[in-house]
Structure formats: structure tokens, C-alpha cells
Amino acid sequence: xxxxxxxxxxxxxxxxxxxxxxxxxxEYAEDHLPGAINLPALSDDERARVGTIYKQRSPFExxxxxxxLVARNVASHLDGPLADKAGGWRPLVYCWRGGQRSGxxxxxxxxxxxxxxxxxxxxxxxxxxxxALLQDRPVPAPVVVLDGNTGTAKTEVLAALxxxxxxVIDLEGLANHRGSxxxxxxxxxxxxxxxxxxxxxxxxxxxxxxxxxxxxxSSRIGSVEVPKSLWAAMRAAPRVRVAAPVAARADYLARAxxxxxxxxxxxxxxxxxxxxxxxxxxxxxxxxxARAGRFAELAEDLMARHYDPRYARHRARMDPLREExxxxxxxxxxxxxxxxxxxxxxxxxxxxx
Length: 353
Prior knowledge:
Elements: E1 18-21, H1 25-30, E2 37-38, H2 44-56, H3 59-79, E3 91-94, H4 100-112, E4 117-118, H5 122-136, E5 143-148, H6 154-163, E6 167-169, H7 171-175, H8 192-204, E7 212-215, E8 220-221, E9 224-225, H9 228-236, E10 239-243, H10 246-256, H11 258-261, H12 264-272, H13 280-291, H14 295-318, E11 323-327, H15 333-352
Parallel strand pairs: 1-2, 1-3, 3-4, 5-7, 5-10, 6-7, 10-11
Antiparallel strand pairs: 8-9
């Protein structure tokens, strides 16, 4: 009998050794159950071919051809990724809706002698659980937002809070983006659904009796959107705002964005994208600073002319009921660790108020 999944939190307790997604690579890339490996029953091209035959020629012929393709692909998996699995191995297999693809693969694995089962409703049942958690239910723990202008090391402070045992959710980490025009990271961003699946798992794991700290963001982080329930909680949440001198922030940014400053062409292209928002002479001045390698000066002027005014407007719309400001004179590694201690204390005060 297919195994039902009643909640996102249940995923962590599934009694299986390996979670196998047998959908095509493109389906898997868009989203999958966190922790699943991809052993496709059909490749992307094969899936398209079988679907075309089903619609244009004959469902029977599509099933016959599909069965032959699935058998060949499973044979390849048996000789490859599954060759070292012992007799007691227990996989859980799923496809789009828990139908023919996962059923066919599970039957073959069971005939080998493994205790293979399928997920009731397949990926579609998982997606419904994710959407319900992110769109229809409140965040399961009290939210505190870590705020601060560009260059106040919020992401590093968030990581330091996590090391101290504070509950955190790193939205920029999940989105693989630093949350600004300059925020691209190697590897690119996940698809929206994959971002949501990982976020749902993080939310489901929260202890509702303790606050969770998230970094202040807009409703979009690069190309992905923050789901509405979390965004509503962030807008209403108390805030700890980190403040630091402009010079310290500029030095921090020059270090933190070393991947960008080392790529002159990319840095120039990003600056050029600000042209619709600033006068030509301002853009030319920023480009000149970049070419000269004066990155701290560039960061300082970008903050003064572009980022700080935007943060001020955004913060005015949030209008938090409670806010604490934590000052930091420096933003080197040791100072950030100390700053995290001050932020953790402020979080406890705000959460307990």
C-alpha cells in the first residue's frame, strides 16, 4: 500500500534508507522532496515522446513503449547507482502522482528483494502540503527580523546567531542570492518551487516556543518570492536593527563582495543596470571608481546615493511596533561574533516583551 504523507514535518521521520524521485530530470530540477535522489524512469525526451504517442496515437502503444523504456532505464540504475545496495535496503519511490512510473520502478526493486514502497499521491501530494504550509498557515514560531542598512553584515550575524543556538532561517541562503542588484551567487538561483520546498522544511522544523530570526528582505530575493504567510509575519514582526559607521560598512562590503570586485566586466555590467535610477554622471563616477579598484569608496557612494535612501523608504513602510538598535563600531570577524551576542540578547527581550 502506498505510504501517505500527512505533513511537511513527517518527511524527516520517514522510515526509509533512500528517497527516490523517478520523474524526469527537468521535473526533478524544478522541485523535489528534499533529500531525494533522481533516478529517472524516463528521460525528458522519452517522457515527451511517450506523452505524444499517448495523445496522438494510442494509450496502449504509449504504455507498451513506456514500459520498455522504463525497464531499460531501471536496468541501468541497477547496474549503476544501486549496484552496492545490500539486501535490507529500503527505498521509497515517488513520481508525479504516485502512478505508473513509481509503481513500475517499485515493482522491479521489490522483485530484487528490497523493501520498496511508493509515496501516496507522489510529488503532487508533497506540493499540496508545501503550498498549504506556506500560503495558508501562520509561521509556527514568533518571528524577529534582523534589520540594518546595506553593509551591516546581517547575513554573517545570522550565521553567528545559528552557531549560538538561536533559531534562524537564512532566506538568502535558500534563495542563493544576496538580495540586491549585486547579489548574484555562483550556481544561480533555485526554481521558485524548490526554494519553497526547502523553506517549508525549515519552517516545519521550528520549535514554536522559541523565536526565529530572519533577515530583513523585500518580498522578492532576486528571482524568487517570499511566500505570503512568512512575508506577512515579517512585516508585523519586531526588529533588531544593526547600525554601524559608513566607513566600517564600506570596508565590509569590499571584503564580502570580493567575488564581484574581482570580475571587472561583471561589476561594470551591474553598475550599468542602475542607469535608469541615477544621472549619467553618477553612473560614470561609479564606473570610474570600479576601474580604479577603489571598492570601499564605491561601496560608500553606492550606499549614500542608492541603498540607504531605499532602505529608509522600505523601513518606513514596515512600521514595526517594537525595535531595538544594536550598534557596532567595527565589522571584522571578532566584532561580528560580539555583535551576534548583543543581537541574541535583543531578540530575547523582544520575543519576551
